Amino acid sequence: MILPSLIDYYDRLVADPEAEVVPFGYSLQKISFCVVLNPSGKLVEIADARVPVETTGGKQKLLARQVRVAGQAKPSGSGLNPCLLWDNAAYLLGWKADDPKPERTRASFEAYRDHHLDLRKEINDEGFDAVCRFLETWDSVAFEPDEATCAYLSSFGLFRLDGERGYVHQRRGVDGWYQRTLQAQPSGAEDSTEQHAQSLISGLPRTIARLHEPKIQGVWGAQSAGATIVSFNSEASESYGKKQGHNAPVSQEEAFKYCTVLKRLLADRDRVEQIGDTTAVWWVDSPEAKVAEDVMAKAAFARFFNTFDEDSEDHDAVAAEDAADRERLKTAIQKLTRGELPDLDGVDEGFHVLGLSPNAARLSVRFWWSGPLRDMLERVAQHHADARLLPVPPREQGRPMTIFRVLQATARHDGTPPKPDAKAIAHKLAGEVARSVFSGGPYPQSLLEAIVRRVRTDGVITHTRAAIVKACITRRRRVLAGPGGRFQEVPVSLNPDGPGPYQLGRLFAVLEKTQTDALPGTNRTIREGYFSSASATPAAVFPRLLRLSQHHLAKLDPGFKTNREKLIQEVCSHLETFPKQLKLEEQGLFQIGYYHQRQDLFTKKSETPVSEETSE
User: Fold this and answer.
1) How many CA within 13 A on the CB side of residue 607?
2) Where are the domains of the chain?
3) At 287, is the pLDDT very low, low, confident or very high (cuts 50, 70, 90)?
4) pLDDT by residue (tens digit) across 467-488?
5) Per its UniProt record, what Pfam families does this chain match (predicted)?
6) Which of 399, 396, 380, 401 is nearest to 470 (CA)?
């Protein structure tokens, strides 16, 4: 459904004149020079077509202008592919700066000239005749541009008649002929290898695209010239004697539509978010009149991925255009963060999310979600509800559990506030987590493994890490129980009646606090030496820790010692024995119990719910 959704979005945009979407058969190209001719085909000048653009430093810079031309970008390769009334200087003028292959340049100009002279009989237009006469008489060998002209001959150029504002390819006679050609040949191409078959998109017989163009740009890590989603360039991937795109029959017009609109979406940075190596892009099936709903959806989606501050200017910039919308957005985000479904207008609009990652000259689809915006908001609310864990440190209150925060928790943590480091995130994990959130399915087992292993290695259990562990276990149990099934809830806050692994985590927190109370200022606690083994092999560690705790209890004040002994006894009363080994999920429960009990111990003594070690 990815391609049909993109095609529908293209059709909606092309019907909107303000959207300025290129119709089928055309493309936007960067034009830097213009060959100006008189009606007789004599060269008047080679004009600079670039436009001044003010840079961030306040200076002006000349950049090529975007002009709609006939046909697509020039395909790569060694073949000669002259375009209609536009091309580079090698084709238009037979000239190339510091030319290492003058024979190739001369052949390019001759191919360009012959191509247009062949069309002379079909195109009845004064401007086109002028171009043909120019190409017939132009001496490319004698052409020696000055240094100023060479500066803008490096990009594409086109033709214009002297005294006219429009270009030759825009003249009624030329453009009318081109459109009639498109209608007569739905393919819009003169490819001898074209095939007609039933399209997988529409189900109708169409001319099948051998190559899907234009190339899709804007995916992080992909080739700057663009890549493709559908591509066959290996015989091992082909079947039934079909070549390249004929193995996945999509008509040329449909390929053009989805490639064009996806390229446009990726160029809009407000609609793109980066998750690891995955570039996520989204769009809404919203009519133009419902701008507010569109903005709401955009802001909610961006907020879900990012971790920017509630009151930051950036947030205001992408959120809404007026105070009322901004306030509605703020309320909606707060509800989502609490795991509740916000009450918004337009939530029944279609919402689509596509995650792409680079794979050489191709793009891999990491995840895809399509459905009403209401369903997306429900999934996001469910994600936050599953990750709800108390107590929440003051600095974490109100912050959504974004996908980036989830991934960031798998990176190394030395107890200080971590900095975003995309390199420390497993690229494959990013797409898997996003897919789980969007689909409502279980989080990847690799996420729970990464968090548990990282906590055991670092010895740091933060609120975010504990919340993710709780979300992974909760989501997995819910899925296994099935729709409407009952399952054992993971404690949200301190639960004195929690399961055994949870009680072991509590016991370890109590023993650690007893040690630090008895030996204040100690450089190395039992957490540094025993946390990892205690959460994995309790039977090998806890008997020794309990014997060690007797020495620590002896150093406490009598009243404090009695209370601490009661607490240890209360926790141990829930344990029948110390298991030899804990499974991965049990290790997660151990860490949650440790977090709850440790926060509770610090709350009782200092009335400060968060210690420096557990804050992020």
Assistant:
1) 0
2) 18-184, 300-347+372-490, 497-604
3) low
4) 999 999 999 999 999 888 888 8
5) Cas_Csd1
6) 401
